[in-house]
## 1
Amino acid sequence: MNRKYRKTVIAGNWKMNKTPSETKEFMTQLKAILPKGRWCDVALCVPAVCIPAAVRAMRETRVGIGAENCNANASGAYTGEIATNMLVDAGCKYVIIGHSERRAMGETDADVNAKVLAALEAGLIPILCCGESLEQREAGITEEWITMQIKSALQNVPEEKIRKLIIAYEAPESVKEELKADGDPLEQKAIGRDALVFIVNEDNPVQSLTLQQLKDIYAGTITNWKDVGGKDQEIVAFQRGEDSGSQTLFKKLLIQGGELMTPPSELAPAAMGELVDSIADYNNSANAIGFSVYYYIDQMYSKPGLRLLAVDGVTPSNDTLADGSYPLCNDFYAVIHPDAAADSPERRLYDWLDTDAGQDCIKKAGYVAVGPQTTVTIVD
């Protein structure tokens, strides 16, 4: 990249994590390790309730605060929505638009376009997200799909304003594998852990399922709870939409290329919260089973009357995830170039993640910390 013509931007999306008080504490820790160089812009996009705390904490730094979503309308009867002028007045500089998780909830290309126009009109810098699913990538339509997304999002945007927005590509899981295949060296280490978990109604007598039983349920070869030690009732197996992160994790950790039945639309809700609600509120809720990720059920959203299933006799918990005994754990990693200098921003952040403060940050984000990693892997 020629920085004479392009500005490097490092942006982080907090998703639905941290309270305002936790935001203030985290920003204090972050300011202590921020490099003084100005070779890039830094953006942190936080939940709406955390925007004032983030703006106050970063007022005298070069970190710009952004929102994770906006409404295209300036005002009106849109309960729960936030207009772009409200974000500007709160001190925001950026706003994320078109994130894959929002698209999975039903946000259309037309919605994205309207939000981009509204954000630019208000003086915000839109961070326009685009990207293909793994299935679209494997079908060879990546370029066509992303071109369509960008063209739709930028419809009626004046040429002079296009340079005022950021296009952020959200890569599917396969990109890292492609980098490995291309021979690009990567240094990585696990910094935290999550897991795929299965939820049932507390009235369901089945306490544990094996990995094979779960595969057979979702392949449609086991259809009655009596076949796995339960009552003589039909199994109602919920899934998520194809583009959701939990569905991708489900396929990666459990299905692994095996058979997977296609659920009717009413059993494949777009949002994770809808899946949890559906299992809790389903007419024959004791029949239902679904999946989520551990941090979501443990930290973000659950409902009375639900419980986690043990898998191969191990119940998911902070302890069983930390020691790896739960069989459907999923590590997430920090990855840098192995030649990164010791005093470079990326190396300092990479090392900080192993400190008590870094691991505490991971815990506060809702994940299970894995402790300082003394072994790193050079992937080439």
## 2
Amino acid sequence: MMKFVIFLLVISWQLLSLGAEWIQPPKYSNKGYLVPSPDYMPMFPRDHGAHRAYGLEWWYWIGHLQTVDGEKKFGFQSTVFRLAGDPSDSNYFNSERFGNRQLYLAHAALSDLDYGRYIHHERVMREGWQGRVGTNSLTIKVAGIEANMLQDERGHFLTTKYPNGGRLELELIPLKPIVRFGDRGLSRKGDDPASVSWYWTYTRLQAQGKLIYEGEEMEVKGEAWMDHEISSSQLGEGLAGWDWTCMQLNNGTEVKAYRLRRDDGSSDRWSAVYWIDQEGSTEQIYANQFSWIEENEWKSPKTGLAYPTTVKISANHPIRGKVTYQLQPLVENQEFYGNQADNAYWEGACEVMDDKGVTIGKAYLELAGYGGGLGARLN
């Protein structure tokens, strides 16, 4: 009897926490790209590759590393973006010839957590010998970022080059199964029916390899996170940007939380929190079941933008009740800026604490759209 009561309580909570009805996505976006469809079951390693018929795609890695002797600590970000060209071009979808209508961006950053230093660089290029992503497996070579599956496909290699001869080489092995986020396999980013994505994540990867930094080569180890997201209209109408975090807690669980910011500063109803347990199962709530409170901001001396880099997230877990996570940056200046100031964003390594101020894990925090105009570029 007690098990049945608990079952009813869980189901009731899930129905209440959804907070948003199902919206059927169209087959095509208003620009003519395919839109991710519900109930799609990805096949790996094939779906680690590029999905060229969709307008926007990215492969994203972050992680916390330390030297094997524990003396030095680092955070890293490596991201490859694929931006599609005009789908009315008859050669666009299938051709992989040099210079075809696929644009690639490579974002690489390294945070020196001991000395508070941050290095980053951006490369933009059309598809060609310096910009290529395979379609049948994880095969990426874009500027200074390369990724390839291990021969036994149990993990992959990631290589990232930095300015002044810096280089990070990692072997990444999943410690949990890949997670498909969202309802019926779709992660929604607003009320626009086309604002959905396939969102697949390795929430905890064992990382080991070597880092060349300031002329010194050192062996490093740690844990990483990998996202692969495919979309054709990332942000819905009226959305200015997002605040997003992934947390890896000391108890072997992970949390992903994001606030979709509306033009008026409020949180969109599709904002969400996900919990991933030790086995890789997930729990999910939407905006009406959590709060994202900005506690302190940092103003960039480079762009003049102000970012809320210290935040408190309080959420109603379906089983455990109220939980609180406080995120504190480990380096203040972790602003990534490329060729245009309004494209700048803050992406940085953070410490996670509970409501008593006790450290319970580590995180990366991403703050995007504070320069304005992001929503227009992602639709």
## 3
Amino acid sequence: MTPIAAALLLAVGATVAPALAAPASAPPSQASSAPDSTPLAPGGDRAVINNYLGLDDSNTLPTPETAGNDATSISQDIFAKRDDAYGAFQRGYYLTALSLALPRAEKADPAAQTLIAEIYAKGLGVAENVATASSWYSLAAKNGDRMAAFELGLLYLNGDGVPKNRQRAAELFKEAADKGYPPAEYNLALMHVDGTDASPSLTDAATLMKSAADAGLAEAQYDYGSMLMDGAGVAPNPEEGARQIGLAAQQGLVEAEIEYATLLYLGKGVPKDLHQAVGWYDRAANAGNPVAQDRYAKLLAVGEGVPLDLKQAAMWRALARRQGLTDPVLDKLLISIPQADLNAAEELARFWPSKPPTAADTAAEAARERAAAASVSSTKLAGS
């Protein structure tokens, strides 16, 4: 399944937006099992179109992009219970939060130190100053704050405000992971897979990934599910692997949505269900993922699990092409589309996700423009 070693490291509070414009890496080319000499006709020979989705390379789907901490994502991990500084921070009164946290931070309160670090790291109410943030993170980490250790690890990983040092980052991730911090467990797992700055161990990676997945981290659910599907560092368990990937899909992780759709289409780890597979491809396609757009277009082009609709298929093909994904198999499936439908599909893609304006819309807009021009003309005459 997913090449976990290539995954990007997550910042705390990372979320995968449902409207991802493109995957983190170039989408995979779609392998074709169809003969080159004959165009594939809609609803054609199943033996010919059996692998038209190119599912043999579905395991190259990218993992989520790194996302930074949103200001509102600071939670009870900073303060075990609500207090004035935390409340001010949550309401966006960052300078008030800073003034309330500072006396406590000077008394070695790790939660207050982390809060101050976050304010400076994100430039919330103050000028962004990563070097100052790193100092506060360091103090908080020394005082036992697991989030601070993780955030400081990210700074060392990227050389942001501190000298770049991936081994130090791994040490800090382990420090936070040992305290049960899911994003740190996930990142440390990835570093064990890579094996450069942490000991190479798929077994350790799987253990950490499972812990982060059990905590509900969507990216970990996706990658742990993939490890279970492949038997990487853990005994193969396609059913549990599919379940984990499904959990990540339910959280809106687009790559997981595509992978879960593929598992449903193939009946791998789950009962084969074309209707559900189409629904997940549709959802990921509408989130802007070109791989999903391409696969959904193919299903529409052959009418499998969804009513045959060449115009909609051509629209999704156009959208996938915008992001650099071309597919000769899909081109063959759409070779018989009437030119009028193809033009209409291109027009739909041009305005997507909105719909093209209707004749009534155009007439109404023209009327508004005429009314505005007449109003300006009347004003000028009145003032002359």
## 4
Amino acid sequence: MELFLVYLAVAAIFFIYFYYDNLRAFNPFIKEYYLAKERVITFATGSEENINYEFGNYLNVLMKEHLKRVGYFKVNVSSVVSNAESIEQTNIGNTDFGIATEYTLSKANTKNIRYICSLYDANVLILSDNRNTKIFDFNDLEGSSIVMHIGPKGSLSNSMARQVMALCGIPVERVKIAETPYDTLIEDYGKSIRVVFLVSVMNNDLLLKLTNSVSSHFITLNKLNNGNLYSKTAAEIQIYKENPYLHKTLISYQNFFKMYPALTRLNERQHYIPSIKTRYVLFSNSNLEEDIGYFVLKTIVEQLHNLEEFIQKATLMDIGFSLLPLEMDKGARKFYKEQNIIVTSEQNPDCIYYINGAKCPEDTMELTGRLVDINAFNVNVI
């Protein structure tokens, strides 16, 4: 009997030694038992210096508090080199969620991409040093000897600058452009480079360094924005219909002075600069489980007051809106319906509510899985 027990003990030790890793998932008294049951939620954001990466990590903190009440979840935020890679990794299923601009999404393969919500704005900011007293508007650069920096090749600013030139009817060869790295721009600005085209959120370290080093002002984009947010010219209506990832905006000097105290304006009576913007969007892979999409969006909405550094003065209607032709994530759709943002009927499938109980507008376009009035949205003062 004693010999049998010795053999049994040896066999048990042998079994545990070789199968320990597998056994850990079945032992309710150790941490690994719970970790094995966790669903790891993955986010592909931007580079570690990018606002998307910062947002993803902050959302991670909020989700840990929110999601642990509904199950075992673990969040992994990974950095990627660009908006385009975030889209690609999510589209092929290497990650659950991604963040990119509407502009980049509009030009990418989004077959397996599903819309969650809109986040923060990426504004077109065109900065000029104050010696350029004859450069008041973007179109003044055509045929000028002034050199404009549009960002390195492949950057969001570079791509959008070329599109803005095309929309303004300016041939690229009629503008002197520089595509040097940003780390050399600070040294060159105000010297060989006199104008900088940036696509950025409001808080931008580069913009702060540029305005602190050289006396500067913003120039207008009147060809794409007549300065009236609530009215579009016939030409503007056509432009924004064909480019639903672009939106009119007014840059408020008063707001920007708070962040960039060295910023100036050539005309003291000019309080706003007409410009355009695109928006950053949170999206998911089409195979994402409904409950995960639902709880991620629910976390964002319930924590908007803690996310004001990123999503400023946003309402549920603001984050639930986009004109991109993307299908909606299953969990996001469920959440929006519960909030009366979307209603379903045979006559009007997936129509946005403006006010609880209101009908959808007659002049609509079927985009982003919803019926929306293309002329009623996407005007903003920043």
